[in-house]
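Thread amino acids onto this structure.
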């Protein structure tokens, strides 16, 4: 649990966002205290220079505290104590989201606060500053009828998939979720402009399918004769796609974390990588080779991450460097930073084999 009293201020400056998230995920904190800590950080942010804010990662910590505290109060209003001003909490949370670039999230928080009776004049001012949401396309009668018929089947498939998921019938759930994703992609292709949350819903299904694939991995290895490397590629790719739209999806985050830990243990050598020569090539090569030995042979994930980060100072467009950095960061407990590195690796190469850690005997072409 978080410390209390004056100790918590020092603690919040020292703890990383990833460590704070793990603390909050345990669900043992008083939500009123979390809102109080978040409000204190919000005020403190206003007096700090930008470099201090960035270095101590105050923005994401304050957002984590607000999100956890407000969500708990919304789930159980009886927990709210008399000294907590929810109107102020909503406003500060929305203000932080705006500063963090999540304008739509800020709008949703303000609209929820106003709808629940916590409106303040400051909220209206901030809401007026936010850009208006895009107008939703309208339906004609034929489109609506066709969609309603399609939606009946889609919902039926989604309920069946969820039922199999809850029952832990993993191989069957895999096939059911493949059907659900096909339905969702068809819906987005035909009516996506009229259903604003369709892509986020698809991301949720991607996360669920990723979990099913991980849980069914023994089945696919034994019966379909997939190697462990092949069996991990699809779920981790699905999970990374899901996290690009739903960064707080814990199921997808857990899939990436478990796959990265597997990569740290079971990674395979993918041979020689040939790269065109460039300035600082020798430094880059030395760091990549150092990272390989620390990650794959010695399991020294902190040192491996440091080597990869030095390599990225020389060049930022090679997939396996981001991939290795992501695996090392997740293995050493920095899950959020590791996920961002892995997402960058897959942006550069969507087909990257997840258990591949190249042995960097690099030859310039």
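Threaded sequence (365 positions):
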């Amino acid at each position: 649990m978080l410390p209390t009293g004056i100790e918590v201020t020092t603690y919040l400056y020292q703890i990383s966002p990833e460590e704070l998230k793990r603390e909050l995920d345990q669900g043992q904190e008083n939500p009123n205290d979390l809102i109080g800590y978040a409000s204190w950080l919000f005020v403190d942010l206003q007096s700090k220079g930008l470099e201090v804010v960035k270095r101590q990662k105050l923005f994401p910590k304050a957002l984590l505290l607000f999100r956890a505290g407000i969500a708990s109060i919304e789930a159980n209003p009886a927990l709210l104590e008399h000294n907590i001003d929810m109107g102020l909490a909503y406003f500060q949370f929305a203000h932080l989201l705006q500063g963090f670039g999540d304008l739509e999230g800020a709008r949703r928080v303000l609209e929820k606060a106003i709808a629940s009776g916590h409106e303040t004049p400051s909220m209206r001012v901030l809401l007026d500053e936010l850009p208006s949401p895009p107008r939703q396309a309208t339906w004609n009668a034929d489109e609506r009828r066709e969609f309603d018929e399609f939606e009946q089947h889609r919902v039926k498939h989604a309920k069946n998939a969820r039922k199999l998921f809850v029952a832990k019938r993993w191989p069957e759930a895999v096939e059911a979720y493949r059907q659900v994703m096909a339905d969702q992609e068809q819906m987005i292709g035909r009516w996506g402009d009229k259903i604003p949350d369709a892509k986020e819903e698809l991301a949720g299904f991607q996360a669920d399918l990723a979990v099913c694939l991980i849980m069914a991995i023994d089945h696919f290895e034994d019966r379909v004769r997939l190697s462990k490397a092949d069996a991990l590629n699809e779920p981790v790719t699905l999970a990374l796609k899901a996290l690009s739209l739903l960064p707080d999806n814990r199921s997808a985050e857990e899939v990436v974390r478990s796959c990265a830990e597997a990569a740290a243990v079971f990674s395979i050598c993918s041979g020689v990588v040939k790269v065109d020569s460039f300035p600082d090539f020798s430094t880059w090569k030395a760091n990549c080779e150092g990272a390989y030995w620390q990650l794959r042979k010695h399991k020294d994930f902190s040192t491996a991450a440091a080597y990869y980060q030095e390599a990225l100072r020389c060049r930022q467009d090679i997939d396996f460097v981001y991939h290795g950095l992501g695996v090392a960061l997740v293995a050493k407990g920095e899950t959020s930073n590791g996920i961002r590195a892995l997402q960058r690796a897959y942006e550069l190469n969507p087909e990257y084999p997840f258990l591949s850690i190249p042995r960097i005997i690099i030859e310039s072409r």
